[in-house]
Write a structure and sequence with these properties.
By secondary structure, this protein is an alpha/beta fold. 41% of the residues lie in helices and 22% in strands. The chain has 4 domains: 9-132, Response regulator (Rossmann fold, 3-Layer(aba) Sandwich), CATH 3.40.50.2300; 155-273, PAS domain (Beta-Lactamase), CATH 3.30.450; 362-520, Heat Shock Protein 90 (2-Layer Sandwich), CATH 3.30.565; 544-675, Rossmann fold (3-Layer(aba) Sandwich).
Length: 678
């Protein structure tokens, strides 16, 4: 048996006659077919040879002792199914030759016509090479198709193919999973969902969205591409979806392109759910509105509150000696104080909405805070409206500002009251909820985690669908002129955002409204010792106070108020003037009362810190018409370090006196008697 050369054609020759083997080998060599022949004389040798790799051709006699050509063909087709098999025989006969060809033989050559051997071999080798090439091409196509299908299914966009008859042929896995649809599209879906719309593209009656198909953006985009061949890019439309039994409106971006598959033009449709992106864009626009209003409110807050402080201060001073005034005068002064308080509260609401107010956040139990507030809400809503409360069992702790959360509840309850002019019911409910990814997918503003839900619902007139997207816009109101500022819900929105939460609203005209406030839940804080009850303090004293205020009227009012109750007062219109007074009277001054925003090289805070470095026993009160984190440098702890206080403008004269007294009495450090003036 010859040892085959790995670079030449490897041929198995099954022939029991030596002379015939030599003739076949000679014909192949003479015909220019270079090959290594593995000679086999029996079944064992032949089947052993078949087990070798890289066999290129099998030549076989048909009639042999103890082993037939038919048996050899069967063994070859089993072990070498793709290798050309040619019978070389003198006794095969035409009938058996045809049968062998049906059984898998490639060709047959009669021994008395060996001149046909070389052409038959070349033809068989060429056919085998072509089959291998075709198989490789088919395998490559199958791999390519599998890869394309994997890409098709893995695409984050929802993709489907629409045929020239405007019928959906296939959808990718992303679309199928989004719609809860089978990939084979053999199960009907609920009416009104996206796939029903796609499958109804050729239906002149419509696509189930309450709009005729001739005007449906999806249908128009597919038709345009199908007819003109031109792609459509990011056509946006609203569609209604039904997922897990929940109907919701979603916003989609549609893109189409013409593709040719199996020599047929088809439209590739790409759909992207851009509901969350649209919501984020709307939130950005809302934030830009808030920022613009915040810039306006912040710009006027300080000066506006200074004007209000003058009006209130003058009225308070006159009311301190009410006996010298007539009853009508005192009543007018009290009305001035009330109007000033309303104006200051309106500005505070603007700043709160724009998140320009400093939030005094602390852990508190919402289930305890709400009952305390409901006692105040009862007279607000009136006797004709029923207030119902339903609290979740156990404490519900959040981290927030109790005062701001009370403002949220008041605003929402007042709105509910106004929506029920005759009678009705307002319901407050609390609940601890755990939100997962499925919930987040259906509520774009939500995020997964543990939250406290505070629900405020009413049985009022409800909110019109056209008004619902605008209810949190500043100054938007459906109330009559003079009955609303349009800031109530805007302030609620701003406060909840400050608390890292969000609001979900559900309403139908005539069926009331429900506002769900979702706030991050926190673990219950460790218990702390209760503070001692405050003691009643006198409002006056004999300490020395330095008042620094650039507004002359406020400076004079403050000096007059403090001197009326016994304090000795130095005044300065700027930080530079205050430093001059300090250089002379530092040993006598017990308290610094300064505005935060002043002209000159130093702010009120910087002045307070410089004087405190000179005298750590100095008490400090900062006043401002715009109490915001940026005016305190983002650091509200510095007042505690200086044993100081913060007063907003305008405030009641009594509040000023109480704050001064409280600040002076905090860890008192009196001046040595030798340093006090005679």
């Amino acid at each position: 048996m010859n040892k085959p050369d790995k670079h030449s054609l490897c041929v198995i020759l099954l022939e029991d006659k030596p002379r015939d083997r030599e003739l076949v080998a000679a014909k192949l060599a003479a015909g220019g077919i270079a090959c290594d022949i593995i000679h086999s004389r029996s079944r064992a040798e032949f089947e052993t040879a078949l087990a070798r790799p890289n066999i290129g051709l099998i030549l076989c006699d048909y009639t042999m002792p103890a082993y037939s050509g038919a048996e050899a063909l069967a063994a070859a087709r089993k072990l070498q199914p793709e290798t050309p098999f040619i019978f070389v025989s003198g006794t095969i006969g035409e009938e058996r030759a045809v049968e062998s060809l049906r059984s898998g033989a490639t060709d047959y050559v009669l021994k008395d016509r060996l001149e046909r051997l070389v052409p038959a071999v070349r033809r068989a080798l060429d056919d085998a090479a072509e089959r291998r090439y075709r198989k490789q091409a088919e395998a490559s196509l199958e791999r390519g198709h599998a890869e394309m299908m994997a890409i098709y299914d893995a695409m984050p966009l929802m993709v489907c193919l629409v045929n020239p008859g405007l019928q959906v042929e296939s959808v990718n896995r992303t679309m199928a999973e989004f719609l809860g649809a089978p990939l084979a599209l053999d199960t009907p879906l609920l009416p009104g969902d996206l796939l029903s719309c796609l499958n109804a593209l050729d239906d002149p009656r419509g696509c189930g969205f309450g709009k005729p198909c001739p005007t449906c953006p999806l249908r128009l985009a597919v038709l345009n591409t199908s007819v003109t061949g031109q792609p459509c890019h990011q056509v946006e439309t609203d569609m209604r979806l039904s997922q897990n039994g929940i109907q919701r409106e979603a916003h989609f971006s549609i893109s189409t392109a013409l593709v040719r598959l199996e020599d047929q033009p088809k439209v590739l449709v790409c759909l992207e759910d851009i509901t969350r992106r649209k919501l984020l864009e709307e939130q950005l626009r809302q934030a830009q509105k808030m920022d613009a209003i915040g810039q306006l409110a912040g710009g006027v807050a300080h000066d506006f509150n200074n004007l209000l402080a003058v009006m209130r201060g003058q009225a308070d001073l006159l009311l301190l000696d009410a006996a010298q005034n007539t009853a009508e005068t005192n009543d007018g002064l009290r009305q001035i104080v009330a109007v000033v308080e309303r104006a200051a509260n309106l500005l505070r609401q603007l700043l709160t909405f724009c998140r320009k107010q400093v939030m005094r956040a602390q852990p508190f139990n919402l289930n305890e805070a709400i009952p305390n507030l409901t006692r105040m809400l009862t007279p607000i809503i009136g006797e004709n409206i029923q207030l119902e409360c339903d609290y979740a069992p156990g404490p519900l702790f959040i981290h927030g500002d109790i005062g701001l959360m009370e403002q949220v509840l008041v605003n929402l309850v007042v709105n509910a009251r106004d929506a029920m002019p005759h009678d009705g019911k307002v319901r407050l409910a609390t609940q601890r909820v755990s939100l997962d990814a499925d919930y987040v997918r259906l509520h774009p503003e939500a995020r997964a985690g543990e939250f406290v839900r505070l629900s405020i619902s009413d049985t009022g007139t409800g909110i019109a669908p056209g008004d619902l997207p605008r209810i949190f816009e500043p100054f938007f109101t459906t109330k009559e002129f003079g009955k609303g500022t349009g800031l109530g819900l805007s302030i609620v929105y701003g406060i909840i955002k400050q608390h890292q939460g969000w609001i979900e609203v559900a309403s139908q005209p005539g069926a009331g409204a429900r506002f769900d406030l979702l706030l991050p839940a926190i673990p219950a804080p460790l218990p702390t010792r209760s503070a001692d009850p405050p003691r009643v303090k006198p409002l006056g004293g004999t300490e020395r106070i330095l008042v620094v205020e650039d507004d002359f009227t406020i400076r004079a009012l403050t000096q007059r108020l403090l001197e009326m109750v016994g304090y000795r007062v130095w005044t300065a219109e700027s930080a530079d003037k205050a430093l001059e007074i300090w250089s002379v009277h530092a040993s006598e001054i017990n308290l610094l009362l300064t505005d935060m925003v002043m002209p000159g090289s130093l702010t009120g805070r910087e002045l307070a810190e410089r004087l405190y470095q000179d005298d750590p026993g100095l008490k400090v009160i900062l006043m401002s018409g715009y109490v915001a984190a940026d005016l305190t440098g983002g650091d509200t702890d510095f007042l505690d370090r200086m044993q100081g206080c913060l007063l907003p403008k305008p405030c009641a004269s009594r509040t000023i006196l109480e704050t001064v007294r409280r600040c002076l009495d905090r860890n008192p450090t009196p001046k040595p008697a030798s340093q006090l003036p005679a």
